[in-house]
Amino acid sequence: MKAARTPGERLIDLVLDPQDPAYRQAYEGRRTQGDPPRWYDRPATVLGALLIGFTIAVAYVHTHRSAPQTQKVHADLVTRVRDAQQQADDLQQRVADLGNRISSARDEALVGDSTLTRQLRAQLVAAGELAVHGPGLQVTLRDAPVPDADDGLGEAQRAGSTPIAATHQLTDRDVRSVVNELWADGAEAVAVNGIRLTPTSAIRFAGQVVLVDFEPIASPYVISAVGDEAGLATGFASSAVASRYTTQASANGIGFSFAEHKDLALPAAAPISLRYATPGGTK
Fold first, then answer.
1. Which site among 23, 69, 91, 161 is 20 to 30 Å from 247 CA-CA?
2. How far is CA 96 from the centre of its chain?
3. CB neighbours of 201 closer than 8 A, spacing ≥ 6?
């Protein structure tokens, strides 16, 4: 009778020979008792290999046969794109040339001091197409200083969750109210942070930025108006707009000031593209 193996001996056998004896016995029995190969196994394998090879060869020939046509289409598209770019460049150059001719004709028409010349000049100033300079009023709006992060707000709010009102007390409505008041007080031309306003200008608020004709501006907002400086200063100082921002400056800490200037320079606005207007017919 074979003596039983101790746990230590079985552990040593497991380390030295990890293969299970029962598994080895089953493997040997299956190998000796396996089914004999069938007569059609080898031909089927050869036929399958030939079929796969034929499919790969057909795909290769088809791909390379269509390559010249694909390359031709690609070259045609590249040529069309380059032609379109050249046409766009030519049209842009033509627009620039016509703009220069219009500017030259306008400058020639503005020479002199006739009634028609004065009317034309006034219309161009109102449209913002002429740079102007002269006496006027300049109004400055500035956001209040941003509170420090350790003043108690940082513990009550997460980082990045500060409301817009905490950092941007002034919005597009404030800029518009000052601009509209200056127009009402007799301004002949107005610019906001160096951007000339025209009859089609828009002042909006997007995210945390004020946009003037889709150009972003930041605090301080400097609104410059050219016109009768005495009339502008008197009208604006006595307006409800000036009173409101004077109160907000005392209560909320925003910056608000206005001052007369003997000579303010306002740039011309970008050319206006007429989208719907057409020349009227003669009656």
1. 161
2. 26
3. 128, 212, 213, 269
Structural domain including 89 reads 44-109
Specify the length of the chain in residues: 283
Name the domain count of the chain: 2
Q: Do residues 252 and 137 both lie within one domain?
A: yes
Strands (E), 93-212: 132-142, 189-192, 195-196, 203-206, 209-212
CB-CB contact of 270 with 129 (8 Å): no
pTM for the whole structure? 0.56
Per-residue pLDDT tens, the chain, 283 aa: give them. Answer: 556 667 667 667 666 666 666 666 766 666 555 556 666 777 888 888 888 888 888 887 777 666 677 777 788 888 899 999 999 999 988 988 887 787 777 777 667 667 777 787 778 787 888 889 999 999 999 998 876 655 544 444 444 444 544 556 899 999 999 999 999 999 999 999 999 999 889 999 887 889 999 899 999 999 999 999 899 999 999 999 999 999 999 998 899 999 999 999 999 887 666 666 666 765 5
Percentages helix, strand, coil for the chain (3-state, rounded to 5) are 50, 15, 30
Kindly state the tokens that stand for 27: 């493997």
On whether the CB atoms of residues 142 and 252 are closer than 8 A, the answer is no
Whole-angstrom distance, CA of residue 164 vs CA of residue 183:
29
**What CATH number is given to the structural domain containing 200?**
3.30.70.1880
- On whether residue 123 sits in a domain, the answer given is no
Does residue 91 form part of some domain? Answer: yes
Same domain, 90 and 137: no
